[in-house]
Amino acid sequence: MRTRSVLASSAFLLLMPATTVLGQESHSLPLEASKIHWGYYDSTLEPVLRIRSGDRVSFDNLLARGLGRLRDAGIAEERFSAEMLAVEAEETERVGSHPLNGPIFVEGAEPGDVLEVRLVAIGFLASYGVSAWRPGGGAITDFTETGVRAFEIDTIAGTATMTGVSGVTIPTRPFFGSIGVAPPASVGRLNSTAPGRHAGNLDNKELVEGSTLYLPVHVEGGLLSIGDGHAAQGDGEVSGTAIETSLYGTIEITLRKDLSLTWPRAETATHYISMGLDPDLDVAAELATREMVSWLVEEKGMSREDAYVLCSVALDLRVTQVVDQTKGVHGMLAKSLFN
To answer: Of the candidates 316, 143, 159, 129, which has an alpha carbon nearest to the alpha carbon of residue 239?
Structure first.
């Protein structure tokens, strides 16, 4: 079942206007085990696709942890597609929670470059989802048993309802929780649970259709992977999960040799976004603030002092998530501030 996203698509680039790349090609990563690596980022992985800067990649993705939680939540077996069942059965090497499409090798990408990932389209592969909790897995630590809840998704109306709970309707805003590149070879294999300088499991609900993510490159080709479909999520993701569901997407990847980043950055139609990631939430908040101050100094020509004051009066710090070992804070600065 393929359904179109209810969100409008638009492109906004953080530092330079968009340009159409001559000879842009479109590629596809179907939902099959050979195109998936489950639960890790690793610089030694062989790419499943090689592209040029400016190309687009369309893909289908299986939800986090596969079909087990859906079964536990009472979703009927006949609602699973043949492709989902095949990936579940065939992909046996599972390091972490997230089946990731990729990795994608971008020709010419070298350490120190930046990959600009524009989220062109995001939509639903299924009209159901699941959320869960487990002891020690969320912001509240005194739950003693694991549990799940099923959700029915109206992909036309753009809403979700929790099974057994009446009178509550949740707007859907689909996005991919995990988008990242391979870490440096010296780091080795990283479990996909915690985000980092490679980005990965950011769980940033602002990265919807039309948004753009900027990723520092650490190895040749970048080795980009993407997955962890969410139908809706609150800032914080406090129980440890969003409405986990299977999504399809199309991304456009542009190699930026004119940029240099230490941490991921992003933007939406209305905001510039800085990010801070650290096991300590205070440190994550400081990093997100420092990143925005640095951007204002570098790109807007402000003094460091003026940029700091502007952030104090106009930058909104939001808790991205508190459940992935490494905490996330993102700063949102409105584009409307600038003439």
So the answer is: 143
Phi, then psi, of 234 in degrees rounded to 5 = -90, 155
According to CATH, the topology of domain 271-337 is: Endonuclease I-creI (3.10.28)
Structure confidence by residue, pLDDT tens digits, 211-250: 999 999 999 999 999 999 999 999 999 999 999 999 999 9
Q: In the chain, how many H helices and how many E strands?
A: 4, 21
Residue whose structure tokens are 């409008």: 8
Neighbours of 71 (CB within 10 A): 14
Residue 190 and residue 198 in contact, taking contact as beta carbons nearer than 8 Å = yes
Distance of alpha carbon 75 from its chain centroid, rounded?
25
Q: How far apart are CA 131 and CA 157, in angstroms?
A: 20
Q: Which two tokens stand for residue 322?
A: 């508190």
Cα Dmax for the chain? 60
Q: Where are the domains of the chain?
A: 27-126+173-258, 271-337
pLDDT tens per residue across span 110-128: 999 999 999 999 999 999 9
Give the 3-state DSSP-derived string for 141-160, with helices as H, strands as E and coil as C: CCCCCCEEEEEEEECCCCEE
| Segment (H or E) for 177 | strand 175-180
2.60.120.580, 3.40.50.300, 2.60.40.10, 3.40.190.10: CATH of 27-126+173-258: 2.60.120.580
Question: What distances in angstroms separate CA 115 from CA 241, 253, 317, 331, one per listed residue?
Answer: 27, 7, 24, 20
The DSSP secondary-structure symbol of 6 reads S
pTM, entire model: 0.92
